[in-house]
Amino acid sequence: MKRLAENTKKWYGSRKRPGRRLKKDDITIVDTDVTKKAVVATALGNAMEWFDFGIYSYLAVIIGKVFFSGITGSLQLVYSFATFAVAFLVRPIGGMFFGMLGDKFGRKRILAVTLVLMSLATLSMGLIPGYAKIGNLAPFLLLVARLVQGFSTGGEYSGAMTYIAESSPDKKRGFLSSGLEVGTLSGYILGSGVVTILSFWLGEDKMLDWGWRLPFFIAAPMGLIGLYLRNHLEETPVFEAMKEGKHKENEKGLFRKVFLFHWPQLLKGIVLVLFFNVVDYMLLSYMPSYLSVVLGYGQSKGLLFILIVMFIMIPIVLIMGYYSDRIGSKRIIMGGLVGLIFLSIPAFKLIGSGTNLTVFFGLMILAVLLATFESTMPSMLPSLFFTEVRYVALAIAFNISVSLFGGTTPLVMAWLIKTTNNQMVPAYYIMAACLIGVLTMFFVKDTTGKALRGSAPAVEEKHEIAKILEDPHEALWWKEEKGNIEEKASELENPKN
Questions:
Q1: Taking the CB of residue 438, how many other CB atoms lie within 10 A of it?
Q2: Is the Cα dihedral 52, 416, 91, 259 positive or negative?
Q3: pLDDT tens, position by position, 316-326
Q4: Is the CA virtual torsion 269, 272, 277, 278 positive or negative?
């Protein structure tokens, strides 16, 4: 593939200094077979990482009993989810740290490093003695392991999104990027499946005694598999151009650019991640505990429900990713937001009804609507930012939002339900997040099928080039926006007297 960053540098220009016109050689022809292999490798690595991260939430009730046995009742679950939420506090730091390293040493390498860190932290959690043996040292060591997990995850997902988005043809970016969420769901499924099987096989007593440790021990061999896959990835064209010195940016200048000139997109990204992750963590992380602790369905039953739901979500995500390239990601997201505003209360009423069929139907309503975000966000979020700031800006927006709103969702729900004694609080929380999302989406430009900001068009077939050259202004749709940014930067550096 041609070097997108190198090419687009020549087009930026400004109102006073227009860049050169788009030429045939500027357009990238993407080998989709190579891209598909990259998607598979990235998604599988992502699955390994989210297996590690997910098993904590599926074992939250047991972890509360093992590490917070000095506390009684439902507060154990609150403390367990508090430790879960703490990991998200360091995610923005991890995102910025690994974002800078990714620009310096290569995205492939950093994706491998984050996977190794996650695996080691997860393995260590399975080795920590419980509160009954070492007292307060147990929750402290658990907290340290969770902080390492959070730090590594900060560079994981944003890097994976950037990698796939920059390696895909424009007209298939939605479908190919949705493969990343298939990896996330697969990791959750594997985590949930392992915990569910062990719970049925060992029973509650043995799971509480030692069985809960087994899923954490699996992290080591899975981490090695993921590491192998990621080491066989190729670098993106953008990084190759930067490595050759065509597009250098020091860390200070990069952060300055993000916060001074790209803050509108940064805010939009934060809101997009807000409603996406509130629904995601509500259904995939908190729901097993909600079903067992709040509704009293039993831990194994709750896990089995979520496991089945996630299996069904995989083809739905891929189908929606496919159609997002045809009807636009924005339309699908808006459909999901409106659906959740009107259907969250009915869904939670069905979940709380007590019968297996209605519980499953209520969960599927939430799952299908969540799939509208799962299928579109991996392509939409990277498209918010220009090539020169994409990795770091996306890492900042994603991790700040996840830290404040996504990862805290299980903790906030556990606390609010205990405080209000109202089982419908999760529905109201989702509705509020989605209402904010609807208002924000009116200001988000749908770039489905278009080149990424700051990048040349990327096509799958040579015959597409002629059509693009017929309207070069549309092909480089972002030039005016870039010109405005360059103009503001120039005025700041050379203020008028």
A1: 15
A2: positive
A3: 999 999 999 99
A4: positive
Confidence of residue 16 (pLDDT cuts 50, 70, 90): very low
**Threshold 0.70, pTM exceeds:** yes
What percent of the chain stands above pLDDT 70? Answer: 85
- Cβ proximity of 88 and 403 under 8 Å: yes
Q: Strands 458-459 and 28-29: what pairing?
A: parallel
Per-residue HEC secondary structure of the chain comes to: CCCHHHHHCCCCCCCCCCCCCCCHHHCEECCHHHHHHHHHHHHHHHHHHHHHHHHHHHCHHHHHHHHCCCCCCCHHHHHHHHHHHHHHHHHHHHHHHHHHHHHHHCHHHHHHHHHHHHHHHHHHHHHCCCHHHHCCHHHHHHHHHHHHHHHHHCCCHHHHHHHHHHCCCHHHHHHHHHHHHHHHHHHHHHHHHHHHHHHHHHHHHHHHHCHHHHHHHCHHHHHHHHHHHHHCCCCCHHHHHHHCCCCCCCHHHHHHHHHHHCHHHHHHHHHHHHHHHHHHHHHHHHHHHHHHHHCCCCHHHHHHHHHHHHHHHHHHHHHHHHHHHHHCHHHHHHHHHHHHHHHHHHHHHHHCCCCHHHHHHHHHHHHHHHHHHHCCHHHHHHHCCCHHHHHHHHHHHHHHHHHHHHCCHHHHHHHHHHHHCCCCHHHHHHHHHHHHHHHHHCCCCCCCCCCCCCCCCEECCCCHHHHHHHCHHHHCCCHHHHHHHHHHHHHHHCCCC
Task: Give the residues across from 28 on adjacent strands.
Answer: 458
Among candidate residues 374, 408, 400, 383, the one with its CA nearest the CA of residue 95? 400
Alpha-carbon torsion 97, 101, 106, 108, what sign? Answer: negative
What is the gyration radius of the CA atoms in the chain, in angstroms?
23
Alpha-carbon separation of residue 263 from 7, 194, 252, 256 (angstroms) = 25, 42, 16, 10
Interval 67-91: pLDDT, tens: 887 676 667 777 777 777 777 788 8
Structure tokens at 31: 């080998």
29-48: pLDDT as tens digits: 777 777 777 787 777 767 77
As a whole number, mean pLDDT of residues 452-457 equals 82
CATH topology of domain 38-227+262-449: Growth Hormone; Chain: A; (1.20.1250)
459: left (phi over 0), alpha (psi -120 to 50) or beta: beta
Distance of CA 376 to the CA centre of its chain: 11
Q: Where are the domains of the chain?
A: 38-227+262-449
Around Cβ 421, how many Cβ atoms within 10 Å?
Answer: 8
